[in-house]
Specification:
alpha+beta; two-stranded antiparallel ribbon
Length: 245
């Protein structure tokens, strides 16, 4: 991978990932585009560009307020451009066929399934992922999610929060029915009643009718210090002895 600053765009040069077939469990699998034919038993859900990756054009759009230029197959799903090239792993891969909503991002003010969106189709668009929603993680939806104990396993949370944030952009005073109709993401832990309560609370916070105390700002975890492990060996009698450093 190469990340060089060229003018106003960042050039990301990696092997594109494209979906191939289904595995025996019914879940889509992804491999590099230049994998062998033996590794691609099924039909691709996205058309594969016939040219070499070196001949792919540049796809340009804005991700979290940063102009980005991807040197990838324009048919590459946005999900994999974000995760593999931009290292924005908050956007999750769930079902791979647009059913679960775990990969939801905000594109030009619309909640979009990134696993079903080719990067070539959003040239010049503005994309916001969960990482770009709030630098200090104090967006009303994020605060409400914590206050109402919505997260369980947490896998659906990024996509669910992005869908909720888009809904509240369009409707500042949604009803419970509006929330159920507007957020169709799946939660494998079944926290739907809490999700509705959290979105209603986030709407009140966004309108200024209620406040939720923000938690501690995110902190980086210091790396674990390196520890020298002792060397061991057996003596002639078979006993384990420690060898001094």
């Amino acid at each position: 991978m190469r990340d060089e600053h060229r003018g106003k765009f960042h050039d990301r040069d990696i092997r594109p990932s494209v979906p191939v077939g289904n595995n025996p469990n019914g879940n889509g699998s992804f491999r590099a585009a230049n994998s062998s034919a033996a590794d691609r038993p099924g039909e691709s859900a996205f058309p594969i560009h016939p040219a070499s990756p070196k001949l792919f054009g540049m796809t340009r759009f804005t991700v979290n307020n940063q102009p980005v230029q991807y040197r990838m197959d324009p048919n590459t799903p946005l999900l994999w451009a974000l995760r593999d090239a931009s290292n924005l792993t908050g956007t999750k891969y769930g079902c791979g066929n647009g059913q679960c909503g775990a990969c939801t991002v905000d594109i030009d003010g619309q909640a979009v399934l990134s696993c079903q969106t080719a990067i070539g189709a959003i040239e010049g668009s503005f994309v916001t992922t969960i990482e770009g929603l709030s630098r200090e993680r104090d967006h009303p939806v994020q605060l409400a999610w914590i206050a109402h104990n919505v997260p369980q396993c947490g896998f659906c949370v990024p996509g669910m929060i992005m869908a909720a944030s888009v809904l509240l952009k369009k409707n500042r005073n949604p009803s419970e029915d509006d929330i159920r109709d507007g957020i169709t993401n799946l939660c494998r832990c079944g926290t739907y009643p809490r999700i509705v309560e959290a979105v209603l609370a986030a709407a009140r916070v966004q309108r200024g009718d209620e406040t939720i105390a923000a938690g501690a700002p995110p902190v980086s975890i210091p790396p674990t210090p390196r520890v020298r492990c002792p060397r061991l060996r057996r003596d002639e009698a078979g006993s384990v002895r420690r060898i001094p450093f």
